[in-house]
Amino acid sequence: MKRTLLLFSLCISVFASTSVSAQEYDLNVFDQAVYYGMYEATVENEPIPDGAIRNSNSSYGKMLTEEQLASFGNKLTMTVTLNPLCDNYDRIGNVNLVLVPKGQTSYVYGEVGRLEIGRFITPFMDMNNTTTTSVPYVYELDHLTNLFHNDAITSDYDFWVELEVYGYQGGPGQGGAAVEIPGCAGRNDVYMGSLDFHSTTDETITDVDHFVKSLSYKYELKNYTLNGTDVLGQTVRTINFTLDQDLPDAKLHLITSNHGANAGGEEYIRRDHFIYFDEMQILMYKPGGVSCGPFFQYNTQPSCIYYDCSTSPAYPRPDTDAAWAWNNWCPGDKIPNRVIDLGDLSAGDHSFKIEVPDAQFTDGQGYFPMSVYLQGAAPLLSSNNFETTSFSVYPNPVVNTVTINAEEEVNVLNVINTLGQTVYTGTTATADLSKLQSGIYIVKAEFANGATASKRIVKE
């Protein structure tokens, strides 16, 4: 059986085992793992959680063992818990399920495929305030359990779980915890994060064959650059894909949120989101609109989200939906995992489209990170379905110009540094990197067939 590297376009057909070995099972994956400044170079001498790898200051990955996979039942709850250190602002974090070729003890972050299975907003927390010292985020993920018992998948791939927590301590002239929270000056640790699974077995549930296809992982939807939209000036993204067989009881799983603290405050403004499948509108939603009051307890440092700063003195906003109608962003809350029923799909070409026509990005700042994947009941497909658009880069190491070699046409080419910053964007298969500093970069290509893939390069 040919093994191929699973990249960002992930296509899995999953067969669910008829036997589940555990009636109730608890697994702690990460226990108060320490995260560091997201804009700084990756720390090298700080402890790493047992059995894990550090992908960056904001990301740890850990493999699930065969014994652990066998212990999961058909119902699954995931809980993420954050404890404050030296970050006191609101940012997004997330949990990913990653498939890595069998037997590897590590992986290159940009060269594996992943599903985002949970996203959350960190609260404004003061580590010295003992009123509330942790914030929980709980997710129901029953729809993923069939993956863990699939021999066809686990014979070629290992499952890894990533917990990603983003934070920055700030500093003189920048504000942030380094100057606002006593004890944080000169530190770069920002949060502690834990992740736990709780699984049970419901004997009344009949397991069926299962199909999963990743369509997008944290795609940055924005209207001011071609790597963020189909049409400049419009906030719209279309993903075309092909099903090789009929897919009964298909569902889309969608995660979107707004980001970007620009002058227009786009991340807080409620905008209509329109979702289309095969050119037909299937959903319209407007994020937020309910009270953030239940999450006030986790925000132990005052902020102008939870306090009305237009008055003096500022006062806490009331726990009513009307008081929060302007807002779609509750620090301390999780981002919804939206599930959209599609019914039965036929084999052939299909398309997913998201559009936010009223979105505004002041001074070319901000974006809407989007993850979406497709599930349904389908018979087992061969592991050849893991194959995706592959490419090579040359030369590597590169001095000046790097070229992409692939069968598919390159639509967008991004080069990303080790801090996660995009330092080059182009629309051809060739990139001039002569002005970049020496170091390691990720080349991320988006192809005409909608697939994306990444390679690591060294710039000399």
Topology:
Layout (H helix, E strand, L loop, with lengths): L10 E4 L9 E13 L15 E5 L2 E5 L2 H6 L3 E10 L7 E10 L11 E9 L13 E6 L4 H4 L2 H4 L2 E9 L11 H4 L8 E12 L9 E12 L14 E8 L3 E10 L16 E5 L2 E6 L21 E2 L6 E2 L17 E2 L2 E8 L2 E8 L12 E9 L15 E3 L6 E5 L4 E7 L5 E5 L3 E3 L6 E9 L4 E8 L1
How does this model look, in words?
By secondary structure, this protein is mostly beta strands. It has four helices and 28 strands. It has helices at 66-71, 145-148, 151-154, 177-180; strands spanning 11-14, 24-36, 52-56, 59-63, 75-84, 92-101, 113-121, 135-140, 157-165, 189-200, 210-221, 236-243, 247-256, 273-277, 280-285, 307-308, 315-316, 334-335, 338-345, 348-355, 368-376, 392-394, 401-405, 410-416, 422-426, 430-432, 439-447, 452-459. A six-stranded antiparallel sheet has the order 3-4-9-6-7-18, with no helix packed on it. Strand 24 and strand 25 form a beta hairpin. The chain is globular.
What are the salient characteristics of this protein?
460 residues; six-stranded antiparallel β-sheet; five-stranded antiparallel β-sheet
Structural class: mainly beta
**Rg for CA atoms:** 22 Å
Strand element count:
28
**Into which percent range does the helicity of residues fall?**
under 10%
Low-confidence stretches: 1-22, 382-388
| Main beta-sheet strand count, sense and barrel state | 6 strands, antiparallel
> What's the tally of helices?
4
What coarse outline follows from CA principal-axis ratios? Answer: globular
Distance between the termini: 38 Å
**How are strands sequenced across the largest beta sheet?**
3-4-9-6-7-18
Mean pLDDT: 86
Fraction in beta strands: 35-45%
